[in-house]
Amino acid sequence: MNYKKNIKDDKNYEKSDSSDSESEYLNISDEEKVHKFNETSNIKNDKKVDLNENIDKLEKDEKKTDILNKENIKNNLKIKKSVDEIISSIKKIDSNINIEE
């Protein structure tokens, strides 16, 4: 901020350059300032709530994913067991065919 010394009194300074938003802010009543602050504060609080909701959703999704992964592992083991049984059966049949020849 640029200040210009007031000629009448050395202790007083007046503002020479001010932005519009600053001068606007200075002209706003204290009640309006508090209201604006509360509005921005509420927005921040809403975002915090949204973040917490998102975290909860992510945790639920993570649990679902873990459950699905466990189910997939079980199913894969069942499939592997079935494939092993089929291979074993084929080997027995193959050995029986070889014996008969």
Automatic annotation (TrEMBL):
Residues 1-26 are annotated as: Disordered. It comes from the Eukaryota. Residues 1-18 have a biased composition (Basic and acidic residues). This is Uncharacterized protein.
